[in-house]
Write a structure and sequence with these properties.
Layout (H helix, E strand, L loop, with lengths): L4 H14 L11 E6 L2 E5 L14 E5 H9 L27 H6 L4 E5 L2 H7 L4 H8 L5 E4 L6 H10 L6 E4 L3 E6 L2 H14 L12 H7 L5 E2 L8 H4 L1 H8 L5 H7 L4 E2 L6 H10 L7 E4 L3 E5 L4 H14 L13 H8 L2 H12 L6
Parallel strand pairs: 5-6, 9-10
Antiparallel strand pairs: 1-2, 1-4, 2-3, 4-7, 6-7, 8-11, 10-11
Length: about 350
């Protein structure tokens, strides 16, 4: 792998950003550095917070990737077909969002799932809110498109030569600069500009939740903050409206599962089975709190916390852009996301 002070700086930034749940959750987010015709980008399914622990960057041939995007070639959807094999002995696959990084001409790109950004990017009036918050910033708002070739097409249609910030509808934030230090400064600036007040959530009813968990495969979460999405009824209603961003769908499933009046965790699980619905890692009990599956994966636990952090920042009166059934389905059935799901399942563990 290329060794340079900028690469070392990118790895350090990746670890710091990855350890901040307000910016990155689980295996989400990615960083990259261009070195001539080589794009070094985070591997799919790996966690940015572990950047210092070992190799996580994959070399991609930038010229062939961009040619594939320009030609609408199917290989633009599979960045692994543009990997420089001789420089990738570990066989890692590049991020599913490699095209986002390739389309921005700056040397360094940092893409995060910033909760402040997502809480605005899911709103129907996102463009108006952003125009006020980001006045003077060379940014582009890109309406939601599935990561991969659809998103690449959408970015290409909106990005300009001076664009340094992308707000991705129902998705997240990308910043670009010619040095790692400048990229980090821009990331902090945009995150601060988009900061919003969050609603405080009432305390959970732990005794009631413990009773509701009896004779089930569900338990109290290790992170007590997860209860906020259910104890704050405004957040609960927002969560109940449907899926809002891709990683929610991938790691928590379509929408959320909410217990009915008097329904126990065991009863919810039986209902899902009867309805031929997949098992859920998370059940919301309105006004009481949440229960999580005993074997909840690290990725799902991280996304449950993201759900709390995003919904609590969305005004109760805001109109939202909810994923359609077709959009949920294309994420769940996309081969690149199935690969990430497999990696996540292999790392199943309880998370504090």
């Amino acid at each position: 792998m290329m060794q340079s002070s900028e690469l070392d700086a990118l790895i350090d930034l990746s670890a710091r950003v990855g350890a901040d749940p307000a910016l990155v959750q689980g295996a989400g987010g990615n960083t990259s550095l261009k070195d001539g015709d080589t794009l070094w980008i985070k591997a799919s399914g790996l966690w940015l917070m572990n950047a210092r622990a070992g190799n996580m960057l994959v070399p991609v041939r930038l010229s062939t990737l961009l040619a594939a995007v320009a030609e609408d070639h199917p290989s633009a959807e599979k960045a692994q077909e543009h990997v420089i094999a001789d420089l990738n002995p570990s066989g890692l696959r590049p991020s599913i969002e490699t095209t986002v990084h390739g389309l921005l001409p700056q040397k360094v790109v940092v893409h995060v799932h910033c909760v402040e950004t997502i809480a605005i990017a899911v709103r129907a009036d996102a463009e108006a809110v952003l125009a006020e918050r980001l006045a003077g910033v060379p940014y582009a708002f890109v309406p939601y498109a599935r990561p991969g070739l659809p998103l690449a097409r959408a970015i290409a249609a909106r990005v300009k030569s001076d664009t340094t910030v992308l707000i991705l509808g129902n998705h997240g934030l990308a910043v670009a600069a010619d040095t790692v230090a400048d990229a980090e400064a821009l990331l902090r600036d945009i995150s601060a500009r988009l900061r919003q007040e969050r609603r405080a959530a009432p305390s959970p009813d732990l005794d009631a939740l413990s009773r509701l968990a009896v004779d089930s495969n569900f338990r109290l979460p290790d992170d007590e903050a997860l209860h906020g999405v259910a104890t704050d009824l405004a957040s609960c209603r927002i969560a109940a409206s449907g899926s809002l961003y891709p990683d929610h769908v991938i790691f928590l499933g379509k929408g959320v599962v909410i217990a009915g009046p008097g329904e126990t965790a065991a009863a919810v699980a039986a209902r899902l089975e009867t309805e031929l619905q997949p098992p859920t890692p998370l059940i919301l009990f309105p006004g009481k709190g949440v229960l999580v599956a005993r074997d909840i994966s690290a990725g799902a636990a991280a996304m449950a916390r993201c759900l709390v952090d995003v919904t609590s920042r969305i005004p109760e009166s805001a109109r939202l852009r909810i994923f359609t059934d077709a959009e949920n389905g294309e994420l769940l059935n996309w081969d690149a996301e199935k690969y990430r799901q497999q990696l996540n399942a292999a790392k199943t563990a309880s998370v504090q």
